[in-house]
User: What shape does this take?
Amino acid sequence: MKKPPAKRSGARRQPPTTLAEFVAAVGRFRDDRDWAQFHKPKDLAAAIAIEAAELQERFLWKTDAEVDRDLADAARKAGVAEEIADVVMFAMLLSDRLGIDLAEAIAAKLAANAKKYPVKLARGSARKYTELGGG
Amino acid sequence: MKKPPAKRSGARRQPPTTLAEFVAAVGRFRDDRDWAQFHKPKDLAAAIAIEAAELQERFLWKTDAEVDRDLADAARKAGVAEEIADVVMFAMLLSDRLGIDLAEAIAAKLAANAKKYPVKLARGSARKYTELGGG
Amino acid sequence: MKKPPAKRSGARRQPPTTLAEFVAAVGRFRDDRDWAQFHKPKDLAAAIAIEAAELQERFLWKTDAEVDRDLADAARKAGVAEEIADVVMFAMLLSDRLGIDLAEAIAAKLAANAKKYPVKLARGSARKYTELGGG
Amino acid sequence: MKKPPAKRSGARRQPPTTLAEFVAAVGRFRDDRDWAQFHKPKDLAAAIAIEAAELQERFLWKTDAEVDRDLADAARKAGVAEEIADVVMFAMLLSDRLGIDLAEAIAAKLAANAKKYPVKLARGSARKYTELGGG
Assistant: This one.
């Protein structure tokens, strides 16, 4: 009986859906290229900041109205989508590198924020939780 | 026949699993507080950059070895997890604000990167794709 | 008697030396191009962050030893010098826009830091002043 | 004859005026605390980015009009001035660490920008030099 071919990283697979599957897909991309050796936490954090800056650059010197107008253009919107994806992918790589479950971390942060910003006090206010004065 | 209660934002629901469900959960958190009014694209992009900087600050002045040692401490690791979650949550809010499907954007960027960084040329190299010289 | 020609922005002048003269030179560059209209404080702050990220990108994925080796190369060092200059020039433009005397601001911050980080307590320590515990 | 006292770092001196004197003053502050050991280029670049983010945070979620109103308040303006000073001081420390003459770097960048953005083409336009199309 013929042995089934080993699963290869490049093999066709279901596209990712869950957050964990996305983290795994990004990790496979890294491992296929043997890039984990460059992915020190400090560098991954810097990479996130760099991508965030590239995102900001898309909006620089523009009024909010000009930004909205720009984003009606499909090519420009796709460019912004790429920068957002870059930010999230490096965040996924950092989570993976540190053994942090990103889905759990987001769920925990949402729960913590819900306490820091109770709907009653925070509704319609841009103040930081330290200034909400819920006493 | 009794009408079923309207679905409320605060109602118990299944915890999010897919990337899209996380985006939706973060969007509900925003809407419960009526915060969409503050979420201009430029501000959300700035918020991502600010959270990325808070993440970097956790590692500042430390050697890679010191960073690893720090992260063996559960409380410090949880602090880093929070900053990563903040980055991703603001990226989700920006995607949502712009009508960008984040899962699609990441899948598209992974595919584009696979072309820019073919395994054969990129394996084990930290060079930027513009310097890979694949001819 | 012939009127002396009006001083023009492009006219030969002494190169700047004092910090205030540099701020003035950068401001003239802006005014010659009628760019003050784009220089809202939020955009200038974003521009500083973007230039800071371009600076970081020069060092990304490199060990400290590789960074030092790179900087022995004159062209690479000049590239880094440009990014640092960009950061400082946008900081000067923001100061100018806000009517902040940058020389005074730096002198004041140095004095404040001298109190926060007394030589006796801070010597040889990378801890933040909040953790110096000089109590 | 009595020997004059050795010049000490803490000794009274003229306040800095030239850009070079400011760089020297910031360097003395560092050396008095024996901090050069922590000042690797990557960390100094990250520190600049972190301070730039703290500056951005002062303006986050605010409209341009709200920012202007805020800055009419002396305490808030002083807070912004501190963040700008922090950015510039770390840029000075990085220049000093790399043996870059900051005054020269700024003068060179101004000259380069004057070529990239000729007054005739750039006047009143926020476009990047790559899009100025001066043929």
Summary: The radius of gyration of chain D is 20 Å. The interface with chain A takes residues 42, 46, 49, 61-62, 126 of chain D (CB under 8 Å).
